Amino acid sequence: MKIFIQKNLNEKKINELFERPAQKNNSTIVIVKKIIDDVKKNGHQSVIKYAKKYDGLNGDSILISKNILVEQAEKINVELKNSIDKAYENIYKFHSLQYPKSISVETMKGIECQKKYLPIENVGLYIPGGSAVLFSTLLMLAIPAKIAGCKRIVVCSPVKNEINSALAYVATKIGIDEFYSVGGAHAIAMMAYGTEKVKKVDKIFGPGNQYVTLAKTLVSNDYNGSSVDMPAGPSEVLVIADKFANPKYVAADLLSQAEHGIDSQVILLTNEIEFARKVLSEINLQIKNLPRRKIVEACLINSFILVVNNLDDAIQLSNNYAPEHLIINTKNFKSLAKKIKNAGSVFLGGYSPESVGDYASGTNHSLPTYGYAKAIGGVDILSFMKSISFQTLTKNGLKNISSTVVKMAEEEKLNAHANAVKVRLK
Amino acid sequence: MKIFIQKNLNEKKINELFERPAQKNNSTIVIVKKIIDDVKKNGHQSVIKYAKKYDGLNGDSILISKNILVEQAEKINVELKNSIDKAYENIYKFHSLQYPKSISVETMKGIECQKKYLPIENVGLYIPGGSAVLFSTLLMLAIPAKIAGCKRIVVCSPVKNEINSALAYVATKIGIDEFYSVGGAHAIAMMAYGTEKVKKVDKIFGPGNQYVTLAKTLVSNDYNGSSVDMPAGPSEVLVIADKFANPKYVAADLLSQAEHGIDSQVILLTNEIEFARKVLSEINLQIKNLPRRKIVEACLINSFILVVNNLDDAIQLSNNYAPEHLIINTKNFKSLAKKIKNAGSVFLGGYSPESVGDYASGTNHSLPTYGYAKAIGGVDILSFMKSISFQTLTKNGLKNISSTVVKMAEEEKLNAHANAVKVRLK
């Protein structure tokens, strides 16, 4: 992890420094397209075929029955159960406050306009398998889905042998309707298009490897496919810290993000070169004891420390970068927080490590990466709902607005639009 | 426009009837990709090149100055000006009620979680040129952008010769920051990637032809591109009517949607064969006087009337179809409205033609087509904003949650995540 000095760099160099590693899909696109087409054409049997090939499925059934979920959930150790219960409570509390209110207003006499929010009926949640079972992601996706009132919540996760007890516990606690042991692009295709065995969903959520994220992009571009939560890139954190911060804490925060994957990006902006050096030596100390040390070391090659001219510059650089996670560990974090324009989730002060938001503070950990925070926020209740507009006009209401509509429609050369008003008032 | 009878059709036939016409992009994708790559590589000069080729640009400037906008706006006739002012007022009123409230809650003692809504800083609005200038679309996009507080609102529209006075009036009334006379895929590429002359935007809104909508899809799939409002398909209306409705009104509503384009789809569901026949003969009468008769006739080939077993079946079929526009013109429209699960904008009763929502009732006319209403709503204030989560923990707050976070992180084998908590409490 190198240290750079802002005043020694021109604007072009600064921009290059903050450039995210390019995302290339060319090598996987042929494979993923083939899998999707196969599932669209051959349905369930091709899902089973790929599940055997890629997920290590034994037998011909991908459905994990409710009985098995309950049975496995009972095996959870009590300490972990209590931790999940506490996280559940906080996430539930924060997300239920987001439930939207419907709107109703008489815009003119006799013209009532409403906006109602309704749950998306069928949602699919993808939970990666791989080296660790991310039961926390199921909490983050299924709790808002439940609060939103989604009628059917489908989960796909590639389960090796028997389902992890923590994942089973979360699934039973929240009440998942259908749980399938299937992963990869074939799981996404199954949810997006449906098969003889599994009804299609309206929107797919959740992180995944390059095959999963590419499959999500492809099905969301297809008119007969499914919507998706958001585009996915590697996870990232940007830390802004000054000399009042503890270098140990800052080092630990950078390392916690770095263990996500070799393509993660971690950035520290500080206004003191001395502080930058202290953090770097703390990183070199703490890294020694990490089980995922190799991943962390690879990640730190993409990462950097920049000594900025002042903290206002730091905020401006951060706003341009639009980090998924932003930690502000400075004395004046409150005033800096007001200047934030683009970020996914923000952690303020010395006692707010990113990991509390990853698990249990109450906020969601499904967040926009790769600069998408400029345009979209993280997963919330509204991610699982959509709005519908309603209008009801009385005959007088229509009279009041008729000349306006007729004039505008005729100007746009849409005479049949004008007629639909005129015919009613003849 | 054919009449079908529900009880004579099996489920497969019904599904085929409601299938939307396939969207094919294969022939245009090569052209659009080439234009986008050219603009990415060669910037402003290639935008000018395509604007000359496709938009009929004279000279080398695409920027329409504020002076010219004001000058042209003054040429608007007073009746049209008053109509636009009235529409503006209703749209403003309905949309400002949607402004979201920030959330703040102490999920546990010492853990404060917040969700704040901030405007997307740079937005681009695409307004099609072509046979008519859709100034109403500028109202529908720029009013919520302004209420949301977007810092920079860019408009692209291919202007022939001089800018239409209604469009100029709307642009000056709302206060557009930059207005460019450029259309097509090159306008989308310019906004998504930026050039030496035009700074990139964070999100692009607005309808367009197949080149524009494909370009929007492509830039939204590119990590360095831009977000977009929603996927676009042909416009559509589904009308549910019973014998208490006036067949003249229903015919006019179907025709008003049909004049949008030959690929539009209009559907009538009614529980009375006699009523279906009356509507059909009204269509044949009213169609004679329409200036866009050829478009309407072509559209009606894709369209149909279905005589349903009962109105509850009609609602269920409509929920499965998820129409962009839904008109319920029945005696019991209030009770049917409660059963709606998927639709973009709904028009209730005999005096609520779709065209009032297209222009002036107050609701937005940028709506999800092609079944996307199952997962997304129309354009609103939140389309121009994003949320950011914040969390601030005290030392005691961190203590209260520490064992929960450490336990969950270690179970997920993310030890550096656990360390970021532990190091602070040593």
From TrEMBL, chains A, B:
The active site is at 324 (proton acceptor), 325 (proton acceptor). It comes from the Bacteria. Pathway: Amino-acid biosynthesis; L-histidine biosynthesis; L-histidine from 5-phospho-alpha-D-ribose 1-diphosphate: step 9/9. Its EC number is 1.1.1.23. Coiled coil: none annotated. Its cofactor is Zn(2+). Substrate binds at residues 235, 257, 260, 325, 358, 412, 417. Pfam families: Histidinol_dh. GO terms for molecular function: histidinol dehydrogenase activity; NAD binding; zinc ion binding. InterPro entries: Ald_DH/histidinol_DH, Histidinol_DH_CS, Histidinol_DH_monofunct, Hstdl_DH. One of its GO terms (cellular component) is cytoplasm. It catalyses: L-histidinol + 2 NAD(+) + H2O = L-histidine + 2 NADH + 3 H(+). The chain crosses the membrane at residues 123-143. Catalyzes the sequential NAD-dependent oxidations of L-histidinol to L-histidinaldehyde and then to L-histidine. PANTHER family: HISTIDINE BIOSYNTHESIS TRIFUNCTIONAL PROTEIN (PTHR21256:SF2), HISTIDINOL DEHYDROGENASE HDH (PTHR21256). NCBIfam families: hisD. This is Histidinol dehydrogenase. It comes from Stygiobacter electus. The lineage of its organism: Bacteria, Pseudomonadati, Ignavibacteriota, Ignavibacteria, Ignavibacteriales.
